[in-house]
């Protein structure tokens, strides 16, 4: 297949594009290398991808902003994708408290550009796009399932992801665009994002600093290893029987205590962590847990990586790359 991956220099996009190339697909990546976090990390991921297996024959890349409509349309016209996996976004719950307009521009206007490019493509591609577990916001019934109402977001980030699901619905309804929204649950692994808690903890622990633990440690997360997420995305790219408009949870189906993850990580890094317990942060939720029955039933998705296997893999990468390339 010809597949366009937006956000291909990002954490998930890099892993996905690599897997698609190894599977023999023609992949076009697109990214603007913005400086929300280390540009060097994004460039290093991109270099690995561009020099990796299959890339010389089957990978091309567009350095472009999804808000640059002519540039995006040019990429669509050249690639003529059969599927677009749209991962480029302004991520981060906490950053959306301090930088709200970044979310309006990238996650709303940018998402609209992607929808419009799909709509006007000569042959409309399937659009698989990143939503987020954060759309469940203030919901308290666990595990979260797609049948629950998601009308109570508690961060602007979550509101833009919910808006994406609504915008996609309009384009399915009006223009027959096939859309698949994936609600990712706390994805982690090698080549991780430096703004995410597991990375921040590893960074602080290896510098001998106290780690900040919010909600006094009473947090639970459905931590999903990146290879499992990529496997789920690939299943959604290839699925033949989807309805025109789909929304799926994609998680590990286990809600882990944050303190257990911290203990595992500290043991892997060989440190005894100092903990600074703090109250709940604005925009955050105390617990996430994905019901994955729908994706499992429709695609055979089955995550296989518990945190006892995934956290050591992240820690190994952290020691090998991140700790040696701190900015
Ligand atoms: N990682 C997670 O746990 C998680 C959880 C829920 C949802 N998501 C969503 O999954 C997607 C991928 O997340 P990630 O963790 O890989 O994030 P990431 O920040 O590592 O990747 C996003 C990539 O998109 C690029 N990008 C951002 N704005 C752009 C723009 N305007 N034009 C072109 N490129 C742009 C960035 O440079 C980056 O390389 C995002 O949509 C995110 O909101 C991630």
Description:
The chain has 327 residues and is an alpha/beta fold. It has a single domain (2-188, 226-252, 288-304), classed as Rossmann fold (3-Layer(aba) Sandwich). The protein is 43% helix and 16% strand. Helix 1 (11-22) packs parallel to helix 2 and helix 6 (100-120) runs parallel beside helix 7 (156-175). It is globular. The model has no long low-confidence stretch (mean pLDDT 97). The structure holds nicotinamide-adenine-dinucleotide.
Which descriptors would you attach to this protein?
327 residues; alpha/beta; Rossmann fold; 13 strands; 16% strand; binds nicotinamide-adenine-dinucleotide
Task: Offer a concise description of the structure.
By secondary structure, the protein is α/β, with parallel strands linked by helices. The chain has one domain (2-188, 226-252, 288-304): Rossmann fold, CATH 3.40.50. Helices cover 43% and strands 16% of the residues.
Measure the end-to-end span.
Answer: 38 Å
Q: Kindly provide the radius of gyration, computed on alpha-carbon positions and rounded to a whole number of angstroms.
A: 19 Å
For the largest sheet, list the strands in their spatial order: 3-2-1-4-5-6-11
Give me the count of strands: 13
Predict the CATH topology.
Answer: Rossmann fold
Helices and strands in order:
Blueprint: E1 2-6, H1 11-22, E2 26-31, H2 39-50, H3 55-58, E3 59-63, H4 69-79, E4 83-86, H5 95-98, H6 100-120, E5 126-132, H7 156-175, E6 179-184, E7 187-188, H8 197-206, E8 211-213, E9 220-221, E10 224-225, H9 226-238, E11 245-250, E12 256-257, H10 258-269, E13 275-277, H11 293-299, H12 307-320
Parallel strand pairs: 1-2, 1-4, 2-3, 4-5, 5-6, 6-11, 7-10, 8-13
Antiparallel strand pairs: 9-12
Helix pairs in contact: 1-2, 1-9, 4-6, 6-7, 8-10, 10-12
Bound molecules: nicotinamide-adenine-dinucleotide.
């Amino acid at each position: 297949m010809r597949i366009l991956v937006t956000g291909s220099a990002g954490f998930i996009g890099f892993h996905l594009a690599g897997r698609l190339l190894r599977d023999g697909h023609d992949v076009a990546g697109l990214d603007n290398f913005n400086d929300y976090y280390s540009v060097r990390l994004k460039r290093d991921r991109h270099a690995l991808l561009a020099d990796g297996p299959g890339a010389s024959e089957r990978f091309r890349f567009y350095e472009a902003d999804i808000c640059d409509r002519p540039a995006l349309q040019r990429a669509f016209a050249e690639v003529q994708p059969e599927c677009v996996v749209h991962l480029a976004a302004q991520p981060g719950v906490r950053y959306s408290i301090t930088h709200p307009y970044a979310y309006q521009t990238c996650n709303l206007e940018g998402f609209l550009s992607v929808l419009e490019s799909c709509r006007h493509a000569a042959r409309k591609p399937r659009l698989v796009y990143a939503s987020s577990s954060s759309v469940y916001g203030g919901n308290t019934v666990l595990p979260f399932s797609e049948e629950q109402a998601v009308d109570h977001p508690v961060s602007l980030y979550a509101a833009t992801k919910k808006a994406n699901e609504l915008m996609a619905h309009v384009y399915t309804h009006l223009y027959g665009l096939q859309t698949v929204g994936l609600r990712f649950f706390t994805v982690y692994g090698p080549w991780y994002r430096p703004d995410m808690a597991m990375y921040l903890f590893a960074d602080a622990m290896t510098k001998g600093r106290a780690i900040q633990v919010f909600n006094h440690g009473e947090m639970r997360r459905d931590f999903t290893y990146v290879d499992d997420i990529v496997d789920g995305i690939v299943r959604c790219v290839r699925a033949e029987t989807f309805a025109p408009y789909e929304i799926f949870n994609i998680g590990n189906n286990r809600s882990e205590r944050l303190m257990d993850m911290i203990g595992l990580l500290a043991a892997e890094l060989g440190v005894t962590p100092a903990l600074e317990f703090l109250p709940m942060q604005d925009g955050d939720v105390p617990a996430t847990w994905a019901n994955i029955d729908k994706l499992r039933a429709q695609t055979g998705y089955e995550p296989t990586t518990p945190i006892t296997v995934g956290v050591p893999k992240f820690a190994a990468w952290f020691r090998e790359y991140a700790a040696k390339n701190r900015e």
